[in-house]
Amino acid sequence: MPQCTGAPPPVEVPAPAPSTRERPAPATIAAVTAAELGATWRPGCPVTPSQLRRVTLTHLGFDARPHRGELIVHQDLVEPVVAIFERLYWLEFPIEKMRPVAHYSKADDQLSMQDNNTSAFNCRRIAGSGNWAQHAYGRAIDVNPLLNPMVDHGKFEPKNAKVYLDRRRIEPGLLHPGDPAVRVFTDAGWRWGGNWKSPVDYQHFERR
What we know:
The protein is of the alpha+beta class. The chain has one domain: Muramoyl-pentapeptide Carboxypeptidase, domain 2. Helices cover 14% and strands 20% of the residues. It contains 4 helices and 11 strands. It has helices at residues 34-37, 78-90, 109-114, 180-186, and strands at residues 28-31, 52-60, 66-74, 97-98, 117-118, 140-142, 150-152, 155-157, 191-192, 200-201, 204-206. The strands form 4 sheets. The protein has a 3-stranded antiparallel sheet with strand order 1-2-3, with helices on one face. Strand 2 (52-60) and strand 3 form a beta hairpin. The chain is globular, with a radius of gyration of 16 Å.
């Protein structure tokens, strides 16, 4: 996936309104093995399984109820990822599902995106490039990728996202410039692909 070329100056994220929602269960952190990573990892990848962690988090679903999901991220990003997703929960930003890409046949990123699955680690290269994607380091997260496609000169991914090319849509789970959910990431030092010129990658956040 192409990398970020720039980002606007950070904007302070307003505190979420008081909520009667129950406090989420604490995140849990666990080491992962090569066997658990399945097809998302292989020898020669730029990180080893020992550098990755499985983070189990509470997120708000599209049914407005709390759900538990998992992200595989670099060990250095565990604390910021936990803080970001707790903030998203209190902002009532919905995430349809959140599970490792190993859940999908051959760790196929296209299948994961078509299923609107929010994910992080996957040892793959940038499309059309020999360079490793930040996902291959566990340093990128794709959020609601069906609703927030990658667009490049009329082409888009995932393949079933055509209706969401219209960024005037405002249903829950979409990401737009200036949205509180976007600023939760960018104010914490992450780059958003929605700020890129070409391609524009609305689902993608990364922190190097």
